[in-house]
Amino acid sequence: MSGPKLLILSMFFIGYLISAQDADSYNRIYRKTFLEVWAKDPKDALRIADSLYQKSETPHYKAKSLMLSATLYQQQSDLQKAVSFAERSESIFAGTDEYEWQSRIYGFLATQYRLLKLYIKSKEYAQKAVAINSKIKEPAQRNVTMGMMLQEMAYYEISLKNYQSAITNIKKAQRFFDDAQTERPHFTGNNHQLLGDCYYSLANYPQAITHYKLAEKNLAAEPDGHLMALTYNGLAKAYLEEGNMGQSKIFLAKVQKMARETDFPQLKSEVYETERNFYAKNGQHNAYNASQKKLDIINDNIEAKGVAFINNSYRKMENKAISDKAVGDQQKLLIVVWIIIFIMVVAYMMIRHRNQKREFERFKKKYFSDRDESLHPTREAEKNINYFRIKTHTKVAEELAAKPYLMTSDTVQRLLKQLEEFEKSDLFLHSNISLSMLAAKFGTNTKYLSHIINTYRKKDFNNYINSLRIRYITQKLTTSGRYRQYKISALAEECGFSSQAKFSTIFKNETSFSPTAFLRFIEKETNVLPDENTGKI
């Protein structure tokens, strides 16, 4: 039947069904317009969709008619009009219990923004569709719309070249369609066509051909539809890659005929690319150049429409901003103030982090200035000695000359040597260590030992012991992953402190970091020293 005759016949049915609000008749014309009329004459299809809208008496039918127009404009890659009609439909369904159609509209808008490569916006609508889908009461409808959303997620993954993820979503979608327990060959055919595309992109051409053939079988009821055209194009591509030029030529001829009879730019683009590759493999240079030229023109048109949509959206936003200026200055000022506060907070955090990092670097230089020594755990005690040895033997003589009444040079040298031996041991980790206990161990009195520690370690006894303990535990934390798993209370007990609070206070005094902050920096600086257990960084 020719386009004009089909249009006249459709108009007759539209007038009849709308007067009676016949849902079955409406759905038949809706489906016929989308699957058949559009493939033959897109302009007639749009006129039918507009007539459906004009004749509809209820918001439900008006919104559905708008979505038909939106879908037809999408097929023509007029994404600006597709989004506009879908948003009008969305506004009609908003606040109603038409959850199935709300989910479909959100899914449709997710598709449009994906095609525009506005992936964040696309994902936002996809999430809204999934959320509203759970409110659909009828299980079959809920399963179908969820399957459609998983198909959209598959398209999204394909656009990002995540083909295995796309395959997973397609198979999930098919399970939902199967659970709907209704015969839906269109959706099943679409799934197989998508699987064919995925396996083709993964260079698994036999598997791609299998799915394209299954798609062809399921789409038999819509032989002129765009999904069948995409299926034929897929078969032409897959056979071409397998070197089966005869089969490739057969399916290419079929889809070329369909491309000539349609205004669907995306389909034309895919067909031109396939025929170009076919001509390249056959050495048909003139035909190759002609196909390349057609491909460039159609892709430029598609891109131009996408750019026009984005520019138009930007102008709408700009105009809205201008119209809101009179009443929005105070809000904008508040926004600016919040932005300034936010920037100040971020700047403060960055400066604070940088200062902490500098403190940590200074700490590393102070405690671990000789990295090579850290490769020899048996020399750890020697580093302690080097760190605390701040007076030379010459200085000892000078001190004695200044204060000869204190003790002999031999006594000083003996006590210093004993102190160095003490620093090699782990006696300072004992929680009951005291000046009198250490003096008794050294065979001297507390006055002499206190003088040696004050003069040659520049600390009183308690701070000297605390310093040894903190140095011990920081080295363990830096060189042993096992210690970094301990709780703060366990670390405090490990190095001889009576309480976690006291340990934390002294730790910060010694290192400029709290134990928690120090651990955080150590985790970031895992290459400061090798693990003492494994010898590996």
TrEMBL record:
Name of protein: AraC-type DNA-binding protein
InterPro entries: Homeodomain-like_sf, HTH_AraC, TPR-like_helical_dom_sf, TPR_rpt
Alphabetical UniProt keywords: DNA-binding, Membrane, Transcription, Transcription regulation, Transmembrane, Transmembrane helix
Biological source species: Epilithonimonas bovis DSM 19482
Membrane-spanning intervals of the chain: 333-351
Signal peptide span: none
UniProt domain HTH araC/xylS-type: residue ranges: 413-521
Single annotated GO MF: sequence-specific DNA binding
